[in-house]
Structures are given as structure tokens and as C-alpha cells.
Design goal:
By secondary structure, the chain is of the alpha/beta class. It is built from seven helices and eight strands. The strands form three sheets. The chain has a three-stranded antiparallel sheet with strand order 4-3-5, covered by helices on one side. Strands 6-7-8 form a three-stranded parallel sheet. It has a two-stranded parallel ribbon with strand order 1-2.
Length: 199
């Protein structure tokens, strides 16, 4: 925040990946989750991903907690305005100057950067969902990053079923509160399970 050179470096780094992020599309898992929401079966989707693909698949903002933010928006570090990143990336590409908000504050992609605290409201929404859920499913995660990995355990410790689907070991594999552990590619298992459940 205090270094123009560091802000330029950050925008350079984000610009390198921007075309890839912009071109990314939701997969069958994202669409299956959105389908569950439309069927009234989702209390909350809590994700560490910053790709915005849940939103693009149709998960509503009211049901989506993006713990680490999203690359689909830029955010002013002063007034908290959020908006479309495209014009700001174009400005940076053309001028090599980090963009600023109309208020004069620094803009950056609306993700949580190293050293930046997670948003308290975001954490509160995830915790509230864990305290109200009647089932929790962890999809495609090693469950090794906290506090994200604590939310499924918080729900499971209340006695609700906890299902883990992942290809490869997870930090929760030995947790007694895990009801079902499925060793598989989430994209191969979860969409078919949703179709069967909603049939």
C-alpha cells in the first residue's frame, strides 16, 4: 500500500493471469451446485477459490461465501467500491500505472492478498452456515487451509453428516466426524450424485 513499485508489480502479476481467468468457465461440479440451489437444497456454498466460477455457474450471492475474495471484481481499498476489472486492466496495460478509484483510493483485484485479513462478515456468514447446516460436503479440497477447513468440522461436530470427496489425501481423513470419505475425482462423482438425488 505504501509502495508504487509494489503496486505496479502486483498489477503486472495479476495482468499475467487475467486472460486465463477471464476465459475460465464453470465445470460440471459448479453447475451441479447451482442446480442444487435451484432445487432449494443449498444453505451456503463456502469456497476458497478466487476464480468466481460458482457465481458464473449461477450460485446466487446470497448463498455464496468466497472466503478469499474473487478475481471477477476489483475493489477500492479506501471506500470499498467494487466493479468490473476489465477497464482497469486495460488502463494499466496502456499506462503502466496502477488504477485508482474515483475517490482516489487504490484499486486491486477483490482477493485477499498475503498479509491481508479475511473479512469478518465473510467469516461470520461461513460460521453461521456451519451452525445451521443439516449436511456438509467438502469437494476437491485437501482441507489443509484454515480457517476454511474448520467450517465443515464445526458443522460435523454438531452431529450432522459430513462427506468428503477428493482425489488424494485430506487433512480430515482421520477425523471421526467424517461420515463418508469418497476417494475420487469430484467431477466424476458429484454431478452424477446430484442428478440421482434430484431425480
Amino acid at each position: 500500500m505504501t509502495s508504487e513499485a509494489a503496486r505496479i508489480e502486483h498489477w503486472d502479476y495479476k495482468l499475467e493471469g487475467w486472460d486465463g481467468f477471464r476465459a475460465a468457465r464453470p465445470n460440471a461440479v459448479h453447475h451441479a451446485i447451482a442446480k442444487l440451489e435451484k432445487a432449494g437444497k443449498i444453505l451456503m456454498v463456502v469456497t476458497q477459490n478466487i476464480d468466481g466460477l460458482h457465481a458464473l455457474a449461477g450460485t446466487s450471492p446470497e448463498r455464496l461465501v468466497e472466503l478469499h475474495g474473487t478475481n471477477l471484481l476489483v475493489e477500492c481499498q479506501s471506500c470499498k467500491w467494487r466493479g468490473d476489472p476489465e477497464p482497469h486492466f486495460e488502463f494499466f496495460r496502456a499506462n503502466r500505472k496502477p488504477p485508482v478509484c474515483e475517490c482516489g483510493g487504490f484499486l486491486k483485484p477483490a482477493t485477499i492478498s498475503f498479509g491481508q485479513s479475511l473479512e469478518p462478515d465473510t467469516l461470520d456468514r461461513a460460521q453461521e452456515a456451519a451452525l445451521r447446516a443439516d449436511l456438509v460436503v467438502a469437494l476437491g479440497s485437501t482441507l489443509s487451509v484454515y480457517p476454511a477447513a474448520s467450517f465443515p468440522l464445526l458443522a460435523a461436530q454438531r452431529g450432522v453428516p459430513y462427506i468428503v470427496i477428493n482425489r488424494g489425501a485430506t487433512e480430515h481423513d482421520d477425523e471421526p466426524s467424517v461420515s463418508l470419505r469418497i476417494e475420487a475425482d469430484v467431477a466424476e462423482v458429484f454431478p452424477a450424485a446430484v442428478e440421482a438425488a434430484l431425480a
